[in-house]
Design brief:
single chain; about 300 residues; alpha+beta; Beta-lactamase; five-stranded antiparallel β-sheet; two-stranded antiparallel sheet; 9 strands; about 45% helix; binds 6-diazenyl-5-OXO-L-norleucine; Glutaminase; Beta-lactam/transpept-like; hydrolase; EC 3.5.1.2
Length: about 300
């Protein structure tokens, strides 16, 4: 890795590369409430393990829906509590399919390919519900503590909007239930999952939360949530599965463990160094933010900060 540390200059250069692309892509509308977001927003923040924070664009004011980015943090909570047992219920291979695809689940006996696609995330939320009795509460507590913001919460309009249009996730959950791979009632798991996805953060808050992984599993208060090995394993799953059927493309273009969400955010981790949050609401055809991907590619190009 290069020793380039002037993140202020780096972020200006990232902004230069991205500026003319802001507004590109298509805002997610299969959750109607998400379609109300201004497509011309863009934010980018870097939080370093030394405690510095650098940002450009709309990084602190506007909060956006975390959506699938929450899957990283629910997995971290489950691994910290139940260790390896979750891997009996979900695999850790790339799916090569879209994040809400059903067909693989049918011929793979209700065991999802990985925890970053929707069926895998539903299993993780189900496990977290069993482990804690309140999956979304446990996630909220973790995120509030790691971002330093006690006020993080789910946007109830987004959660309700997803519930009202959530038949695909419902189908995934009931299909897994039919194979005996759901331990709690499906409506309860879906309720926690929809509210989990609807938690909103700013770019700066997301970058701070990602430090949990950049610091190899160490929390903001200095305690260890995950073993160093489990933090590494989660980042490996992010790299191979975190951007769905574009994971190969992201490894090629960005070269960092990344997790995207249909709210337009992408979290990327430079292990041992920093956590990077990029946000632009317009998505590409695979459901990943077009401008956030471009910004992350520019970031690793300029800094040479990559795991490769
Ligand atoms: O379950 C869903 O479809 C959404 N709540 C989350 C999907 C998502 O963020 C996929 N991301 N690219």
């Amino acid at each position: 890795m290069s020793d380039y540390h002037d993140y202020g200059e780096v972020l200006d250069a990232v902004m230069e590369r991205v500026r003319s692309h802001i507004g590109e892509g298509r805002v997610a509308d299969y959750i109607p409430e998400l379609a109300r977001v201004d497509p011309d927003e863009f934010g980018f923040s870097v939080a370093t393990v030394d405690g510095d924070l650098y940002s450009v664009g709309d990084h602190s004011g506007t909060r956006f829906s975390m959506q699938s980015i929450t899957k990283v943090f629910t997995l971290a909570l489950v691994m910290s509590r139940s260790g390896d047992s979750v891997w009996k219920r979900v695999h850790r291979e790339p799916s090569g399919t879209s994040f809400n695809s059903l067909y693989q689940l049918e011929f793979e006996s209700g065991v999802p390919r990985n925890p970053m696609i929707n069926p895998g995330a539903l299993i993780v939320t189900d496990q977290l519900l069993t482990d804690t009795g309140d999956a979304v509460g446990a996630l909220g507590e973790l995120l509030c503590a790691e971002t330093g913001d006690p006020d993080l919460h789910a946007d109830n309009l987004v959660a309700r909007s997803e519930d009202e249009h959530g038949d695909r996730n419902r189908a995934l959950a009931y299909l897994m239930s039919s194979f005996g791979n759901m331990h709690n009632p499906v409506p309860d798991v879906l309720d926690h999952y929809f509210r989990q996805c609807a938690i909103t953060v700013s770019c700066e808050e997301l970058a701070r939360a990602g430090l949990l992984l950049a610091r190899h599993g160490r929390r903001a208060d200095g305690s260890q949530l995950l073993s160093r090995s489990d933090a590494r394993r989660i980042m490996a799953v992010m790299l191979t599965c975190g951007t769905y059927d574009a994971a190969g493309e992201f490894a090629y273009r960005v070269g960092l463990p990344c997790k995207s969400g249909v709210g337009g955010g992408i979290l990327a981790i430079v292990p041992g160094r920093c956590s990077v949050a990029a946000w632009g609401p317009g998505l590409d055809s695979k459901g990943n933010s077009a401008t956030a991907a471009l910004a992350l590619e520019a970031f690793t190009d300029i800094t040479n900060c990559s795991v490769f």
